Amino acid sequence: MERILVGIDAQESDLAPGIHAVNLAKRIQAKIYILLVKRPNSQGEAPGERNLIARLEQLIDQARSEGLGLEYFVSEGLLENEALRFIQQNAITLLVVGQPKDGGEPAMKQFRRNLENIRLRVDCHIEVVQQREASVVTERK
């Protein structure tokens, strides 16, 4: 069985990777692990974090109600490090992450370096999802 890790940076407040993973898991009968990573030593919540968590919990409830196996974890650190550790400890076969929406070219270069670092250290496919208005596909019966 495929094991999908959705890595979400609490500061990005983007749910597109989670939505993508849920839709994919329905098609391939995969188990989903969602890892929400908060920055270390952050003072309070990141802007939009509370809204992100509420939307994430709705997505989790919906996925579980549709019979998908899903586990949810919260960690503190850098997404690259936390995702890498999680992949190694849980035999993850696919990592789904969102492309940074802010920060311009410097942020994209760092993002690509981080992904390359993960790719070189684990045997795991990686999918990058761009933020857009997305929704969970519900099956019609």
UniProtKB/TrEMBL annotation:
Pfam annotation, one family: Usp
Gene3D superfamilies for the chain: HUPs (3.40.50.620)
Residue intervals of the UspA domain: 2-102
Official protein name in the record: UspA domain-containing protein
Lineage per the UniProt record: Bacteria, Pseudomonadati, Thermodesulfobacteriota, Desulfarculia, Desulfarculales
